[in-house]
Design a protein that fits this description.
Retrotransposon gag domain-containing protein; 4 helices; elongated; Retrotrans_gag_dom
């Protein structure tokens, strides 16, 4: 459930969308939320961070934790990157 500023934003956005005849489903909400709170510039930065991630001197468990943390964001905010398999570096 949204609270505070996010709730206020969604109420206004939902009202505007329904007034325009837009079907407000999960995908619509997700798209609008990401546009508002994770603009394209932030997504590009996060994608670049993900693509530059390498183990270096980190332990496997530390690297795996960082990888999984960044992957969660990438899957939610940047669906254009596709599946994990498409992110492999040879």
């Amino acid at each position: 459930m949204l609270v505070g500023e996010a709730e206020h934003w969604w109420r206004g956005t939902h009202h505007m969308l329904t007034a325009r005849g837009v079907v407000v489903d999960w995908e619509c909400f997700r798209r609008m939320f990401l546009e508002k709170y994770f603009p394209e510039s932030v997504r590009h930065v996060k994608e670049a961070e993900f693509m530059r991630l390498h183990q270096g001197g980190m332990t496997v468990s530390k690297y795996a934790m960082k990888f999984e943390h960044k992957l969660v964001f990438i899957r939610k905010a940047s669906p254009r990157l596709g599946s994990v398999g498409s992110l492999r570096r040879d």
